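Sequence only, no structure available. Ideas?
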Amino acid sequence: MHRLDPSVIDPARSFDRSPEAYEATRPSYPDEVLDLVPAPETATVLDLGAGTGKLTRVLVRRYAEVIAVEPLDGMRAILERVVPEARTLPGRAEEIPLPDASVDAVFAAQAFHWFANDDAVAEIARVLRSGGTFCLVWNAPDETRPSPLPTRYVAYLDELRAERSTLDSDLRFADVIARGPFGETHESAVPHDHVLDRAGLIANASSVSWIASRDDEERAQVLERLGSLLPEGTYAVPNVANVLWSVRL
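Reply:
I predicted one. Tokens follow.
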């Protein structure tokens, strides 16, 4: 894991610098991901680290009751506005503001790498009923299909990510979950496309932690260079929504 200069904006909190860009340009998830998860439509489910509700809006279309917990004020304000059907609470994975055994499933979408630790796993197990499901969902590039993005644009993004990403590439989510009271993990995926125009792709880049955590001057320079590498147009970027789930023992 990279060690960041202490003067750099906390990557985990950098999303609150551009929550509207996050909401407008981050990909959602196909409803079909929930077909892969053993949770009945009558379930009460928790979306942990819900952000602006990219998965929350999918959950409310399926389950009887949805609770969304998000620590960042700016992200949570958008979540409350765009998914009013969910009950939204401030909170963090290590201190979930819910009673013991109060939900049938816990989801974490594009978020688990921020709290992949034993304290969070213990808290998730605490609020889950026995036999309930813990499910991770995250989008990633679909490398089985060709990308329409220019090679130099992608290479620069990869360079920026390598400089600042706090994601431990050796971290295996299944291993972290296995340290808690959970059974075998199951994995699957659903392919889908993320369609954005040039402005949307640049705004999307501005919302990722390894760009958003830079100071204003450097961030502006990075986005200007990204813009110079990306022609005008609409891009259907091949994505895959990954699903990993396990049942609480």
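The mean pLDDT is 93.
Hope that gets you unstuck.
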